[in-house]
Design brief:
The protein has 3 domains: 93 residues, NAD(P)-binding Rossmann-like Domain (Rossmann fold); 211 residues, UDP-N-acetylmuramoyl-L-alanine:D-glutamate ligase; 146 residues, Protein-Tyrosine Phosphatase, Chain A (Alpha-Beta Complex), CATH 3.90.190. Helices cover 33% and strands 20% of the residues. The chain has 15 helices and 21 strands. Strand 4, helix 3 and strand 5 form a beta-alpha-beta unit. Helix 5 crosses helix 10 and helix 11 runs parallel beside helix 12. The strands form 3 sheets. It has a 10-stranded mixed β-sheet, with helices on both faces. It is α/β, with parallel strands linked by helices.
């Protein structure tokens, strides 16, 4: 495989519109990304079927919306009526359903190409970057909803709602918001009117090989912006700022945001260490209908400087990119409900608050630990981080960076690696990171069943527990709260 080139899909090729795809079968339809695309196809009136390795609430919800779903994967699930099959890069060619589709000569699309099939005739915003994609996309969606723009959206995680029934995708009549995944090069397929780049970091090296290839692919992404469109980029990130300068030099329109004094929308007076973070905004040049010298206060109901940056990205995309009213956008950001697994409050028991987060690369982990650190420093108590590394290759490549980010905690509990799509690597485990953490009390717990009892014995009243990682660590918060509540009752 050539670094940075997806040899299974041509993301530069045009994609047929959704109406021309016929009945569509989704492999791994219950996944957080795939389910959203299936939902949008159903809304477009496309007959949808799909399978997943195990049953889930997502599968049942899709069934209730009209999809024909299967638990387990078998060639027979790809019915004779199916004309198109949609997969992600994680689906191997040996998958029985994909093998059947290939044998029958069916059209096979990547998930991103499935989204692209929905875009003809629509204005689109694609949000890319190593960190902050889901939150920025969610914030932009809510800001547009508050502005009356009625967006369509496909996110990597459901928006949070009080009833717990949030969704990761919904059709609308306005702009289409896409969380654009760069991990496999598929973000090149969208050709958006507005592209947002939150940051460019050395991640997904199993596909790209090195940072230079990642940067070159982001340059190609910026070049896919539709004529007359806008690139929104972070002035505080070296990679994004370099991309913005090059795109401007090539004649493209650019708007930047951040704490750097060069930013078009400049953030100052940041107050990130509370459950509602705030910053002062100053427009340093005219952007759309907003003149230079305009000032506002930005408020988001999430802690952390990184979430203020995410909100600023969403704000610039909505106003400078899509022409929405500034104050309506700010009101939407202030009311942002959050997305599943992004500093999501799980609950509280015995005076211990448990929060769950999907962070799985070094910068994300460091950001969520900093946010937790700010909260406990202002409220008292300790920060306990339960971290499950994701992918053996990522653990091997970034062990010291993970350890540095985790070192701001008071107590660190390391689980073993969540393999996901990879096979184990000799000598790589959660202990690889645990051995490098300097400062906190560190516990490496290789037996997953022992994690909850271990954490329950470690925590004290007033502690904040963060369960962190892209694997099944998210399932530990509920049992931990139950054990703490039972201990309190006893």
């Amino acid at each position: 495989m050539t670094a940075g080139v997806n040899d299974r899909f041509d993301f530069t090729a045009p994609v047929p519109p959704v109406a021309d795809l016929g009945p569509v079968h989704f492999i791994a339809i219950g996944g957080s990304g795939m389910s959203g695309v299936a939902r949008m196809f159903l809304a477009a009136g496309v007959p949808v079927s799909g399978s997943d390795a195990r049953d889930s609430a997502t599968l049942r919800a899709l069934e209730a919306e009209g999809a024909r779903v299967f638990v387990g994967q078998d060639a027979a699930n790809v019915g004779p009526e199916v004309e198109t099959v949609v997969i992600s890069s994680a689906i191997r060619e040996s998958n029985p359903e994909l093998a059947a589709a290939r044998e029958r000569g069916l059209r096979v699309l990547h998930r991103a190409q499935g989204i692209a099939a929905l875009l003809p005739g629509r204005s689109a915003v694609a949000v890319a970057g190593a960190n902050g994609k889901t939150t920025t996309s969610g914030m932009l969606t809510v800001a547009l909803q508050h502005s009356g723009a009625d967006p369509s959206y496909v996110l990597g995680s459901p928006l949070t709602t009080p009833d717990g029934h949030g969704t990761n995708a919904a059709p609308g009549t306005g702009p289409f918001v896409i969380e654009a995944d760069e991990s496999d090069g598929s973000f090149l397929t969208y050709h958006p009117d507005v592209a947002v780049v939150t940051n460019i970091k050395p991640d997904h090296l199993d596909f790209y090989g090195d940072l230079a290839t990642i940067e070159a692919t982001f340059t190609r992404f910026a070049a896919t912006i539709a004529e007359g469109g806008l690139l929104v980029a972070a002035a505080d990130d070296r990679g994004a700022a370099t991309l913005a300068a090059a795109h401007h030099e090539a004649g493209g329109a650019v708007a930047t945001f951040g704490t750097d004094e060069s930013a078009d929308v400049w953030l100052t007076e940041l107050r990130p260490d509370a459950m509602t973070a705030t910053a002062h905004l100053t427009w340093q040049r005219d952007l759309a209908e907003i003149p230079a010298g305009t000032t506002r206060t930005l408020s988001v109901p999430l802690p952390g400087a990184h979430n203020l940056a995410n909100a600023a990205a969403a704000l610039v995309a909505a106003t400078a990119g899509l022409g929405q009213d500034l104050d309506a956008v700010l009101a939407g950001l202030a009311a942002y409900p959050g997305t599943h697994r992004r500093f999501e409050r799980v609950g509280e028991a015995a005076g211990v608050l448990v929060v769950d987060d999907y962070a799985h690369n070094p910068d994300k982990v460091a950001a969520v630990v900093r946010a937790g650190r700010g909260l406990v420093d202002s409220d008292g108590g300790r920060l306990v981080v339960v971290f499950q590394p994701h992918l053996y290759s990522r653990t091997r490549d970034f062990a010291s960076d993970f350890a540095a980010g985790l070192s701001a905690a008071d107590v660190v509990v390391l689980l073993d690696v969540y393999a996901a799509r990879e096979d184990p690597l000799e000598g790589v485990s959660g202990a690889t990171i645990a051995d490098l953490v300097n400062g906190p009390q560190v516990h490496y717990v290789s037996d997953r069943d022992a994690v909850v009892p271990t954490v329950a014995d470690l925590v004290e009243q007033g502690d904040l527990v963060l369960t962190v990682g892209a694997g099944d660590v998210t399932e530990l918060g509920g049992p931990l709260l139950e054990q703490l509540a039972e201990r309190e009752r006893a």
